Each structure stands twice: as C-alpha cells, then as structure tokens.
Amino acid sequence: MAVKPKKHLGQHFLKEASVAKKIADTLSLKGYDKVLEIGPGMGVLTAYLLEKPVTTYAIEIDSESIDYLQEHFLELSNRIIKADVLKYDFSNTFGKDPFAIIGNFPYNISTQIVFKMLENRHQIPEFSGMFQKEVAQRICINEGTKSYGILSVLVQAFYNAEYLFTVPPTVFNPPPKVDSGVLRLTRKNDFSLPCSEKLFFKVVKSAFQQRRKTLRNSLKTFNLSDNLNANTIFGKRPEQLSVAAFIELASAIENDQKKV
User: Fold this and answer.
1) For the segment 145-163, what is each residue's pLDDT rounded down to a tens digit?
2) Global pTM value
3) What secondary structure, in 3-state letters, does 102-119 show?
4) pLDDT tens-place string over residues 171-180
C-alpha cells in the first residue's frame, strides 16, 4: 500500500518519474563512487540513483519516509541514515572518502545545505539537485545583477556552477507556488584560496550585508591602510566584483593587515 507523502521541512515531493530520471542523470559519476541523497521522501529519485554504478546512501529525518524506503528499496535499507543533515557528521558514514550529494532539497533549508557542502568541500567533488528556481539561479549567476550575492561568490570560489533546467510546480505533491530549478556544481581542480578562507568568507559577507554601499564603507571594520583604501576597487559596490576580484580583494586585505 502506497504511503501518502507528508510535507515536512518545506519539502515538496516529486511525483513525475521522468523529471526524477533527468535529475539523477545530472551526476557525472567522476571522482567518486558514493552518492548521498538528501531528503529522498518516497524514493522517486532514489529509484534512478540505485540504477547507477555507484553506491547510493540516503539521509532522511522523517520516520514515515524511512519506513516506506525500507519496505520498497531493500537494497538501500542498510544505507539509510536517520538524521538531520545539517547536524550530521559525514565522516560517520564516508570517513575521508569522496562522495557526491544530490536531492530534491527542502526549500527552507536549501541554502543551509549548500553551506554544509562548502564546509565539507574537500570530500564533495560534485553536488546537484533541485532548489526553488530563484535560489538555484542566485547560486549560478555572475556579477552585475541584483541576484548576485554571498551565495553566488562563496559557491563559485570553489565550484563551477551550472543552471541546468527549470521544473514546473505540477510535478510535485503538494505543488509549490513557484518554479524549481536544477543545478550542478562541479568542484574546481584547484579549489584552494591564496588567502585565509575565514577572511575571504568574512569579506564577502561584510560586503553584501551592506550591498547598497561602496566597499569603502561596507569594509570599514577591516581598518584598511590609507594606501589600500585609495584603490579604485573600494569605490565599487559588491555586485560589480567577479569571484576572482573578491579573491584578489581578500588577498590584498590580508597582506595589508600583515603590515600593521
């Protein structure tokens, strides 16, 4: 007997198999042999992941969904993790092994999932899945637009981001009020930074938290030297800077602080 899916954590469950297959096919299967699906629900996407030549794991917090998965996907039953993904230590399952992440992500924790990925980027060469459309676009968009922000810069500093396709509300139960978007993030070959990662994150967040101000005003708390503060880049607003420019900016601030 089929279980009627519940909406939890802002999640809308896929009911269209063709869309699920299309999402599963976004995985390149390069650089890893393990995949973690976040929020599998009733397993519409899971079914296609299990056909791939990788070992699929699933992390789910809803007991009803877990019961359904264990009953209908016996080959997955010992690889279902009952936990809150935002609190889960991936090393408990994967040790130091690389793994990809995929899913139809709950809208209200989707950006937190991305930040969790960034924290564990050394183990995650690929990340793909479905978000609210505007969030997916924001992650992938380039400088020069209002949507470009903290998430865009931090993700693209370490990953190549591709917006792949749009999904209408009609393929979900219950249907959301907005379109969804599927993206793929592929980690860069060199994903190290030439400056402190902590400082880079702080510079980006400080700049966009006052995005209407020029960098000269939004980055005042960094106590820049007069020489650096005179650089023309500080007359710009954050959405005008490319990811590479932000990395150069953080490096310049770091060098400036070392002279003090």
Assistant:
1) 999 999 999 999 999 999 9
2) 0.92
3) EEECCHHHHHHHHHHHHH
4) 888 888 899 9
Classified by CATH at the fold level, domain 197-258 comes out as Helicase, Ruva Protein; domain 3 (1.10.8)
Q: Are 92 and 71 in contact (CB under 8 A)?
A: no
Residue type, 60: E
Choosing among 3.40.50.740, 3.40.50.150, 3.30.750.200, 3.20.20.150, the CATH entry for 13-187 is: 3.40.50.150
Q: What is the tens place of the pLDDT at every residue in 39-85?
A: 999 999 999 999 999 999 999 999 999 999 999 999 999 999 999 99
Name the H helices within the chain: 17-24, 44-49, 63-72, 91-94, 110-119, 133-140, 150-158, 197-209, 215-218, 226-229, 243-258
Q: Could you give the count of Cα atoms lying within 13 Å of 36 in the half-sphere of its Cβ?
A: 27
**The residue count for the chain:** 260
Nearest Cα residue to 179 out of 12, 9, 5, 4: 12
Give Cα separations from 180 to 9, 43, 130, 141, 147 (angstroms): 16, 19, 7, 16, 16
Q: 236 — alpha (psi -120 to 50), left (phi > 0) or beta?
A: beta
